[in-house]
Amino acid sequence: MDVPYDLNSYIRVLKLASTPTWDEFWQVSKIAGAGVLLIGFLGFIIFAIMNFIPGGV
Fold this sequence. Notes:
Layout: H1 3-16, H2 22-52
Organism: Natronocalculus amylovorans
Membrane topology: Single-pass membrane protein
GO cellular component, one term: endomembrane system
């Protein structure tokens, strides 16, 4: 592991990084929220199915 080379590449990435605009932030938030809701819904469906199966959880 070449520490000076790694450090320089990390600094270069940080210099290229920028704060997202409000529109970019809002779009990412909506997509992440939809993913959370989808995973929660799938978990609820699995839970409901397991409750209706005899001998389930």
